[in-house]
Amino acid sequence: MKRVDDFRLRLGKHELVPIMVGGMGVDISTAELSLEAARLGGIGHISDAMVPTVSDRRFNTKYVRNKLAQYKFNVANSDKSVVQFDLALLAEATAMHVGRTMEAKRGPGLVFINCMEKLTMNGPKETLRVRLRAALDAGIDGITLAAGLHLGSFALIEDHPRFHDAKLGIIVSSLRALQIFLKKNSRTGRLPDYVVVEGPLAGGHLGFGMDWAEYDLATIVAEIRNWLIAEKLDIPLIPAGGIFTGSDAVGFLEMGASAVQVATRFTVTRECGLPEDVQQEYFKASEDQIEVNQISPTGYPMRMLKNSPAIGSGIRPNCEAYGYLLDASGNCQYIEAYNREVAAHPEARKVKVFDKTCLCTHMRNFDCWTCGQYTYRLKDTTRQNEDGSYQLLSAEHVFRDYQFSTDGKISLPE
Ligand SMILES: Cc1cc2nc3c(=O)[nH]c(=O)nc-3n(C[C@H](O)[C@H](O)[C@H](O)COP(=O)(O)O)c2cc1C
């Protein structure tokens, strides 16, 4: 029986262990986690979600405090159009986050950045251009453009000196999304170097509607693979979503995938950015505690634990400090939902908002416990301590388990 280690992912001159640890914002896939994947010969991701905030925590900068001070006058105003990101500071924060990570990289693997294009940041095109270019300037090995694809994103960097040297990939959940992207970007004369095909069991936001359960990753991968063959397009396919064991991964590699992208199993590693008490919630979760809901103001369904503190929280929108989901005209669906509840309960000191959440604040505080569908199986990947808590794993342990395991087995830590 084959193991993942019997396969290799070829990306240009690189020959890699075909395991890619997916991006998990906000700083859930930390630099440390991505560096472990690279050290072990695979690909790791940092995330470019809310980088100024991440930088404040990582390097003790004061981007958030200063932005709040600048826009404090607007806090009570529901029109957030004045709350603009300073592009030079955004570039500086990105350069620092990426640059320091790349300086620390060891080993034969690569570190990519997951760029969530749905972070429209009150200026979608300008801010995205700065984020992409700053990451390239700071030496990132590759960029994965995540769901919510801006169809013209390659054009934003086509004049960058590293446009052809850096690896550029996209995440899609359907053949149609891939076809539209390729058509829109054909003018740049550059194909993606890889395509992550994310199925309905993934963590984070989903590229499906609330009918996600009707879709199946293997079917979508086969459809895209057959179309690429018919079009004579040689682009590595990387399935993601619910690939829980090395044997699951081998199944996809044998059907023609070039690698797999995995995330959930790494949420309970020491290198992951989630606080340990939250990691214990992930371990403890049962299947019926995992739901796909519509509380993300992005409009995309999102999978999370039902006991996430973000659900129902009615905090005042924090756009002056954050504001990553403000659209081009300074709106966010949470602001509307919050204002509606405040108007309906004028006497209340605190309101509850159930239909949307302030995602910036709650992701920043690790209070939105987004997770893959198989989170309920994490307890089977470790040992339980005498006090009932679960033993955290090392990223190396999980990576090597994917790389070498057979027969659907999962090795437990020593
Ligand atoms: C906690 C968590 C956070 C995630 N955040 C992001 C994200 O910020 N951007 C993104 O493109 N995908 C995100 N994902 C999706 C993963 O990168 C990956 O494609 C997917 O979860 C793989 O499926 P698995 O978790 O079943 O292994 C996230 C997944 C998890 C579990």
TrEMBL record:
Keywords: Dioxygenase, Flavoprotein, FMN, Oxidoreductase. The keyword Nucleus does not apply. Pfam families: NMO. InterPro entries: Aldolase_TIM (IPR013785), NMO (IPR004136). It comes from the Bacteria. GO terms for molecular function: dioxygenase activity; nitronate monooxygenase activity. This is Dioxygenase related to 2-nitropropane dioxygenase. It comes from Oryzomicrobium terrae.
